[in-house]
Design a protein that fits this description.
Blueprint (H helix, E strand, L loop, with lengths): L18 H16 L3 E6 L7 E5 L8 E5 L17 H5 L3 E5 L9 H18 L4 E6 L1 H8 L8 H4 L2 E7 L14 H4 L3 H6 L14 E5 L4 H14 L2 E5 L17 H7 L1
Parallel strand pairs: 3-4, 3-5, 5-6, 7-8
Antiparallel strand pairs: 1-2, 2-4
Protein backbone atom coordinates (compact mmCIF):
# COMPACT_ATOMS: atom_id res chain seq x y z
CA UNK A 1 0.00 0.00 0.00
CA UNK A 2 1.18 3.50 -0.78
CA UNK A 3 1.77 4.67 2.83
CA UNK A 4 3.31 1.51 4.29
CA UNK A 5 6.81 2.95 4.13
CA UNK A 6 5.72 6.29 5.57
CA UNK A 7 4.49 4.54 8.73
CA UNK A 8 7.34 2.03 9.00
CA UNK A 9 9.51 2.83 12.02
CA UNK A 10 11.87 -0.09 12.63
CA UNK A 11 13.28 -0.04 9.09
CA UNK A 12 14.70 3.42 9.79
CA UNK A 13 16.09 2.82 13.30
CA UNK A 14 19.54 1.29 13.75
CA UNK A 15 19.39 -1.91 15.81
CA UNK A 16 15.59 -1.83 15.87
CA UNK A 17 15.30 -5.57 16.54
CA UNK A 18 17.30 -5.20 19.75
CA UNK A 19 14.82 -2.85 21.41
CA UNK A 20 11.95 -5.24 22.35
CA UNK A 21 14.13 -7.80 24.16
CA UNK A 22 15.86 -4.96 26.03
CA UNK A 23 12.52 -3.49 27.02
CA UNK A 24 11.28 -6.89 28.20
CA UNK A 25 14.38 -7.51 30.31
CA UNK A 26 14.34 -4.05 31.89
CA UNK A 27 10.63 -4.35 32.62
CA UNK A 28 11.00 -7.73 34.32
CA UNK A 29 13.95 -6.55 36.41
CA UNK A 30 11.97 -3.53 37.53
CA UNK A 31 8.90 -5.55 38.54
CA UNK A 32 11.06 -7.96 40.52
CA UNK A 33 12.76 -5.08 42.33
CA UNK A 34 9.47 -3.68 43.65
CA UNK A 35 8.35 -6.87 45.40
CA UNK A 36 4.97 -6.25 47.09
CA UNK A 37 4.73 -2.74 45.67
CA UNK A 38 4.11 -4.29 42.22
CA UNK A 39 0.49 -5.42 41.92
CA UNK A 40 0.22 -7.47 38.73
CA UNK A 41 -2.79 -8.40 36.58
CA UNK A 42 -5.56 -6.43 38.27
CA UNK A 43 -8.69 -7.03 36.15
CA UNK A 44 -10.70 -4.15 34.70
CA UNK A 45 -12.82 -6.19 32.29
CA UNK A 46 -13.77 -9.76 31.34
CA UNK A 47 -11.05 -10.53 28.77
CA UNK A 48 -7.66 -12.15 29.36
CA UNK A 49 -5.95 -8.91 28.32
CA UNK A 50 -8.30 -6.63 30.27
CA UNK A 51 -5.83 -6.24 33.12
CA UNK A 52 -3.46 -3.60 34.44
CA UNK A 53 -0.33 -3.55 36.56
CA UNK A 54 -0.09 -1.07 39.42
CA UNK A 55 3.24 0.08 40.84
CA UNK A 56 3.09 1.84 44.20
CA UNK A 57 5.52 4.32 45.73
CA UNK A 58 6.58 4.18 49.34
CA UNK A 59 3.91 6.00 51.32
CA UNK A 60 0.61 7.42 50.11
CA UNK A 61 0.61 8.12 46.36
CA UNK A 62 0.46 11.78 45.29
CA UNK A 63 -1.59 10.70 42.28
CA UNK A 64 -1.52 8.09 39.54
CA UNK A 65 0.25 8.14 36.21
CA UNK A 66 -1.27 5.86 33.56
CA UNK A 67 0.89 4.80 30.62
CA UNK A 68 -0.78 3.26 27.57
CA UNK A 69 1.51 1.27 25.28
CA UNK A 70 1.69 1.41 21.51
CA UNK A 71 2.28 -1.13 18.76
CA UNK A 72 -0.24 0.00 16.13
CA UNK A 73 -3.11 -1.59 18.14
CA UNK A 74 -1.63 -4.90 16.86
CA UNK A 75 1.10 -5.97 19.28
CA UNK A 76 2.68 -5.70 22.74
CA UNK A 77 1.10 -5.65 26.18
CA UNK A 78 1.71 -3.98 29.52
CA UNK A 79 4.56 -6.28 30.55
CA UNK A 80 7.10 -4.76 28.13
CA UNK A 81 7.03 -1.25 29.61
CA UNK A 82 7.10 -1.60 33.40
CA UNK A 83 10.52 0.07 33.75
CA UNK A 84 9.09 3.32 32.38
CA UNK A 85 7.40 3.73 35.77
CA UNK A 86 10.72 4.64 37.39
CA UNK A 87 10.50 8.39 36.84
CA UNK A 88 7.03 9.16 38.23
CA UNK A 89 7.41 6.54 40.97
CA UNK A 90 10.51 8.33 42.28
CA UNK A 91 8.36 11.42 42.81
CA UNK A 92 5.79 9.57 44.88
CA UNK A 93 3.27 8.85 42.14
CA UNK A 94 1.65 5.48 41.60
CA UNK A 95 1.97 4.16 38.04
CA UNK A 96 -0.55 1.97 36.23
CA UNK A 97 -0.14 0.24 32.88
CA UNK A 98 -3.06 -1.52 31.17
CA UNK A 99 -3.10 -4.11 28.44
CA UNK A 100 -5.96 -4.24 25.95
CA UNK A 101 -7.25 -6.53 23.21
CA UNK A 102 -5.62 -6.19 19.80
CA UNK A 103 -6.79 -5.85 16.22
CA UNK A 104 -8.12 -7.72 14.30
CA UNK A 105 -9.84 -9.50 17.22
CA UNK A 106 -11.43 -6.17 18.13
CA UNK A 107 -11.74 -2.76 16.47
CA UNK A 108 -9.79 0.37 17.39
CA UNK A 109 -13.04 1.79 18.77
CA UNK A 110 -13.34 -1.28 21.02
CA UNK A 111 -9.78 -0.70 22.26
CA UNK A 112 -10.60 2.92 23.04
CA UNK A 113 -13.55 1.82 25.18
CA UNK A 114 -11.38 -0.76 26.94
CA UNK A 115 -8.77 1.84 27.84
CA UNK A 116 -11.52 4.13 29.17
CA UNK A 117 -12.71 1.26 31.37
CA UNK A 118 -9.15 0.72 32.57
CA UNK A 119 -8.79 4.41 33.48
CA UNK A 120 -12.02 4.27 35.50
CA UNK A 121 -10.90 1.17 37.39
CA UNK A 122 -7.44 2.62 38.05
CA UNK A 123 -9.05 5.81 39.35
CA UNK A 124 -10.93 3.67 41.88
CA UNK A 125 -7.65 2.14 43.08
CA UNK A 126 -5.68 5.37 43.62
CA UNK A 127 -6.90 8.74 44.86
CA UNK A 128 -5.71 12.11 43.65
CA UNK A 129 -4.85 13.59 40.28
CA UNK A 130 -4.50 11.45 37.16
CA UNK A 131 -1.84 11.98 34.49
CA UNK A 132 -2.06 10.14 31.17
CA UNK A 133 0.63 9.43 28.60
CA UNK A 134 0.73 6.97 25.76
CA UNK A 135 3.12 6.17 22.95
CA UNK A 136 2.24 5.89 19.25
CA UNK A 137 -1.10 4.04 19.17
CA UNK A 138 -1.10 4.63 22.93
CA UNK A 139 -0.76 8.33 22.17
CA UNK A 140 -3.94 8.05 20.15
CA UNK A 141 -5.66 6.25 23.01
CA UNK A 142 -4.78 8.76 25.74
CA UNK A 143 -5.85 11.63 23.48
CA UNK A 144 -9.19 9.88 23.00
CA UNK A 145 -9.65 9.80 26.78
CA UNK A 146 -10.46 13.53 26.67
CA UNK A 147 -13.70 12.71 24.86
CA UNK A 148 -16.45 13.54 27.35
CA UNK A 149 -18.46 10.58 26.07
CA UNK A 150 -15.77 8.13 27.23
CA UNK A 151 -14.91 9.02 30.83
CA UNK A 152 -17.44 9.94 33.53
CA UNK A 153 -17.32 13.48 34.89
CA UNK A 154 -15.87 12.47 38.25
CA UNK A 155 -12.88 10.83 36.55
CA UNK A 156 -12.50 13.52 33.88
CA UNK A 157 -12.36 16.17 36.60
CA UNK A 158 -9.29 14.45 38.07
CA UNK A 159 -7.26 14.58 34.86
CA UNK A 160 -4.18 16.73 35.45
CA UNK A 161 -2.35 16.41 32.16
CA UNK A 162 -2.40 14.33 28.99
CA UNK A 163 0.78 13.68 26.99
CA UNK A 164 0.33 11.96 23.63
CA UNK A 165 3.85 10.80 22.69
CA UNK A 166 4.39 10.33 18.94
CA UNK A 167 0.62 9.96 18.59
CA UNK A 168 -1.49 8.77 15.71
CA UNK A 169 -3.98 11.61 15.68
CA UNK A 170 -5.58 11.34 12.23
CA UNK A 171 -6.39 7.74 11.27
CA UNK A 172 -7.48 8.45 7.71
CA UNK A 173 -3.95 7.97 6.27
CA UNK A 174 -3.86 4.49 7.79
CA UNK A 175 -6.58 3.45 5.36
CA UNK A 176 -3.81 3.57 2.76
CA UNK A 177 -1.59 1.09 4.61
CA UNK A 178 -1.71 -2.70 4.51
CA UNK A 179 -2.32 -2.64 8.28
CA UNK A 180 -5.90 -1.66 7.56
CA UNK A 181 -6.58 -5.28 6.62
CA UNK A 182 -6.38 -5.86 10.37
CA UNK A 183 -7.94 -2.56 11.48
CA UNK A 184 -10.90 -3.09 9.11
CA UNK A 185 -11.65 0.64 9.13
CA UNK A 186 -13.59 2.64 6.58
CA UNK A 187 -13.40 6.44 6.33
CA UNK A 188 -16.29 6.93 8.76
CA UNK A 189 -14.70 4.73 11.42
CA UNK A 190 -11.30 6.39 10.94
CA UNK A 191 -12.75 9.87 11.40
CA UNK A 192 -14.76 8.79 14.44
CA UNK A 193 -11.57 7.53 16.12
CA UNK A 194 -9.32 10.44 15.10
CA UNK A 195 -8.39 12.82 17.93
CA UNK A 196 -8.03 15.68 15.44
CA UNK A 197 -11.80 15.40 14.87
CA UNK A 198 -12.75 15.51 18.56
CA UNK A 199 -14.77 18.55 19.59
CA UNK A 200 -16.37 17.97 23.02
CA UNK A 201 -13.27 17.48 25.15
CA UNK A 202 -12.38 17.76 28.80
CA UNK A 203 -10.46 20.99 29.41
CA UNK A 204 -7.14 19.47 30.45
CA UNK A 205 -3.58 20.64 29.66
CA UNK A 206 -2.16 18.64 26.74
CA UNK A 207 1.43 18.43 25.54
CA UNK A 208 2.12 16.63 22.27
CA UNK A 209 5.61 15.09 22.47
CA UNK A 210 7.52 13.68 19.50
CA UNK A 211 11.13 12.80 18.63
CA UNK A 212 13.02 15.05 16.26
CA UNK A 213 14.41 11.99 14.43
CA UNK A 214 11.03 10.34 13.81
CA UNK A 215 9.58 9.51 10.43
CA UNK A 216 8.03 12.55 8.69
CA UNK A 217 4.60 10.95 9.00
CA UNK A 218 4.86 10.97 12.79
CA UNK A 219 6.15 14.52 12.88
CA UNK A 220 3.10 15.42 10.78
CA UNK A 221 0.72 13.50 13.02
CA UNK A 222 2.06 15.35 16.08
CA UNK A 223 1.75 18.69 14.33
CA UNK A 224 -1.80 17.95 13.21
CA UNK A 225 -2.92 17.31 16.79
CA UNK A 226 -1.04 20.35 18.04
CA UNK A 227 -2.79 22.53 15.49
CA UNK A 228 -6.25 20.98 15.95
CA UNK A 229 -6.19 21.36 19.72
CA UNK A 230 -3.87 24.40 20.07
CA UNK A 231 -1.67 22.46 22.49
CA UNK A 232 1.91 22.69 23.66
CA UNK A 233 4.31 20.81 21.37
CA UNK A 234 7.73 19.38 22.27
CA UNK A 235 10.11 18.03 19.61
CA UNK A 236 12.72 16.03 21.54
CA UNK A 237 16.20 16.50 20.11
CA UNK A 238 17.95 13.31 19.00
CA UNK A 239 15.02 11.00 19.74
CA UNK A 240 13.45 8.51 17.32
CA UNK A 241 10.25 6.50 17.63
CA UNK A 242 11.73 3.79 19.84
CA UNK A 243 13.75 5.87 22.34
CA UNK A 244 11.45 8.88 22.64
CA UNK A 245 9.84 7.21 25.68
CA UNK A 246 13.13 6.57 27.51
CA UNK A 247 12.90 9.79 29.59
CA UNK A 248 9.93 8.32 31.47
CA UNK A 249 12.47 6.17 33.31
CA UNK A 250 14.53 9.24 34.33
CA UNK A 251 13.20 11.02 37.45
CA UNK A 252 15.03 14.21 36.41
CA UNK A 253 13.73 14.39 32.82
CA UNK A 254 11.56 17.17 31.44
CA UNK A 255 8.98 14.56 30.43
CA UNK A 256 8.61 13.29 33.99
CA UNK A 257 8.45 16.89 35.27
CA UNK A 258 5.39 17.45 33.07
CA UNK A 259 3.69 14.50 34.74
CA UNK A 260 4.47 15.13 38.40
CA UNK A 261 4.64 18.92 38.75
Amino acid sequence: MELDDAYANGAYIAGADDYPPRWDASAEDFRNSLHERAQIDIPYGPGDRNKFDLFLPEGTPKGVFIFVHGGYWLRFDKSTWSHLAVGPLAHGWAVAMPSYDLCPDVSIADITRQVASAVVHIAEEVDGPIALAGHSAGGHLVARMLDRALLPEDVGARLKTVIPISPLSDLLPLLRTSMNKQFKMDAEAAKAESPVEMQDRYDVPVTVWVGAEERPAFLDQAQWLTDAWATDHVIAFGKHHFNVIDPLADPDSDLVALIVN
